[in-house]
Amino acid sequence: MIYKLKLLVLFLMLPAALFSQSKFEKKGDKALLKGDYPEAIIQFKNIKNKNAEVNRKIAECYFVLGNYDQSENFYNSIQEKEKNSADLLHLSQINLANDNFTAAVLLAERAGELGADPNEVQIRLDAVRKFTE
Fold this sequence. Notes:
Helices cover 77% and strands 0% of the residues. With 133 residues, it is mainly α.
Protein backbone atom coordinates (compact mmCIF):
# COMPACT_ATOMS: atom_id res chain seq x y z
CA MET A 1 0.00 0.00 0.00
CA ILE A 2 2.79 2.45 0.90
CA TYR A 3 4.54 1.64 -2.39
CA LYS A 4 1.38 2.55 -4.32
CA LEU A 5 1.02 5.78 -2.33
CA LYS A 6 4.62 6.76 -3.06
CA LEU A 7 4.11 5.97 -6.72
CA LEU A 8 0.94 8.10 -6.80
CA VAL A 9 2.73 11.03 -5.15
CA LEU A 10 5.59 10.70 -7.63
CA PHE A 11 3.24 10.81 -10.61
CA LEU A 12 1.39 13.80 -9.18
CA MET A 13 4.60 15.75 -8.57
CA LEU A 14 6.37 14.87 -11.81
CA PRO A 15 4.48 17.34 -14.05
CA ALA A 16 5.11 20.16 -11.60
CA ALA A 17 8.82 19.37 -11.57
CA LEU A 18 8.98 19.16 -15.35
CA PHE A 19 7.24 22.48 -15.89
CA SER A 20 8.85 24.45 -13.10
CA GLN A 21 11.52 26.99 -13.85
CA SER A 22 15.04 25.72 -14.21
CA LYS A 23 17.59 26.80 -11.64
CA PHE A 24 19.21 28.99 -14.29
CA GLU A 25 15.94 30.76 -15.03
CA LYS A 26 15.30 31.35 -11.34
CA LYS A 27 18.79 32.80 -10.90
CA GLY A 28 18.36 34.88 -14.05
CA ASP A 29 15.04 36.27 -12.84
CA LYS A 30 16.60 37.11 -9.50
CA ALA A 31 19.49 38.93 -11.19
CA LEU A 32 17.02 40.73 -13.47
CA LEU A 33 15.07 42.01 -10.47
CA LYS A 34 18.30 43.33 -8.96
CA GLY A 35 19.20 45.07 -12.22
CA ASP A 36 22.26 42.85 -12.68
CA TYR A 37 21.74 42.44 -16.42
CA PRO A 38 25.11 40.83 -17.24
CA GLU A 39 24.49 38.13 -14.62
CA ALA A 40 20.93 37.63 -15.85
CA ILE A 41 22.22 37.11 -19.40
CA ILE A 42 24.71 34.50 -18.19
CA GLN A 43 22.04 32.60 -16.30
CA PHE A 44 19.46 32.73 -19.09
CA LYS A 45 22.02 31.64 -21.70
CA ASN A 46 22.71 28.51 -19.61
CA ILE A 47 19.16 27.31 -20.23
CA LYS A 48 19.34 24.52 -22.81
CA ASN A 49 15.86 24.76 -24.33
CA LYS A 50 15.14 28.46 -24.56
CA ASN A 51 11.56 29.45 -25.24
CA ALA A 52 10.31 32.83 -26.47
CA GLU A 53 10.08 34.19 -22.93
CA VAL A 54 13.71 33.37 -22.12
CA ASN A 55 14.93 34.82 -25.42
CA ARG A 56 12.84 37.93 -24.70
CA LYS A 57 14.48 38.34 -21.29
CA ILE A 58 17.96 38.03 -22.83
CA ALA A 59 17.04 40.51 -25.57
CA GLU A 60 15.71 43.00 -23.02
CA CYS A 61 18.88 42.71 -20.92
CA TYR A 62 21.06 43.42 -23.94
CA PHE A 63 18.73 46.28 -24.93
CA VAL A 64 19.07 47.93 -21.51
CA LEU A 65 22.85 47.50 -21.68
CA GLY A 66 22.87 49.19 -25.10
CA ASN A 67 24.15 46.13 -26.95
CA TYR A 68 21.68 46.48 -29.77
CA ASP A 69 23.27 43.87 -32.05
CA GLN A 70 22.86 41.09 -29.51
CA SER A 71 19.45 42.38 -28.50
CA GLU A 72 18.29 42.28 -32.10
CA ASN A 73 19.62 38.73 -32.52
CA PHE A 74 17.60 37.48 -29.56
CA TYR A 75 14.47 39.41 -30.53
CA ASN A 76 14.74 37.92 -34.02
CA SER A 77 15.01 34.43 -32.55
CA ILE A 78 11.42 34.83 -31.31
CA GLN A 79 8.87 33.66 -33.86
CA GLU A 80 6.86 36.47 -35.42
CA LYS A 81 3.58 35.21 -33.99
CA GLU A 82 5.07 35.26 -30.48
CA LYS A 83 6.43 38.81 -30.61
CA ASN A 84 4.52 41.34 -28.54
CA SER A 85 4.19 45.09 -28.94
CA ALA A 86 7.10 45.80 -26.57
CA ASP A 87 9.36 43.52 -28.62
CA LEU A 88 8.42 45.40 -31.77
CA LEU A 89 8.97 48.81 -30.16
CA HIS A 90 12.44 47.74 -29.02
CA LEU A 91 13.21 46.42 -32.49
CA SER A 92 11.97 49.72 -33.89
CA GLN A 93 14.37 51.59 -31.59
CA ILE A 94 17.24 49.31 -32.62
CA ASN A 95 16.50 49.92 -36.31
CA LEU A 96 16.31 53.65 -35.66
CA ALA A 97 19.74 53.52 -34.00
CA ASN A 98 21.07 51.61 -37.03
CA ASP A 99 19.64 54.23 -39.44
CA ASN A 100 17.17 51.71 -40.86
CA PHE A 101 14.31 54.17 -40.84
CA THR A 102 11.87 52.22 -43.00
CA ALA A 103 12.05 49.18 -40.73
CA ALA A 104 11.77 51.42 -37.66
CA VAL A 105 8.50 52.87 -38.97
CA LEU A 106 7.06 49.50 -39.98
CA LEU A 107 7.90 47.93 -36.61
CA ALA A 108 6.41 50.86 -34.70
CA GLU A 109 3.22 50.64 -36.75
CA ARG A 110 2.98 46.88 -36.16
CA ALA A 111 3.48 47.49 -32.44
CA GLY A 112 0.52 49.86 -32.58
CA GLU A 113 -1.57 47.21 -34.29
CA LEU A 114 -0.71 44.81 -31.46
CA GLY A 115 -1.93 47.27 -28.85
CA ALA A 116 1.12 49.32 -27.93
CA ASP A 117 0.45 52.63 -26.23
CA PRO A 118 -0.43 55.02 -29.09
CA ASN A 119 1.68 57.74 -27.47
CA GLU A 120 4.77 55.50 -27.51
CA VAL A 121 4.16 54.63 -31.15
CA GLN A 122 3.75 58.30 -32.04
CA ILE A 123 6.93 59.23 -30.16
CA ARG A 124 8.82 56.59 -32.15
CA LEU A 125 7.36 57.78 -35.46
CA ASP A 126 8.20 61.40 -34.60
CA ALA A 127 11.78 60.37 -33.78
CA VAL A 128 12.11 58.72 -37.19
CA ARG A 129 10.77 61.85 -38.88
CA LYS A 130 13.36 64.00 -37.11
CA PHE A 131 16.14 61.83 -38.46
CA THR A 132 14.79 61.74 -42.01
CA GLU A 133 14.07 65.45 -42.43
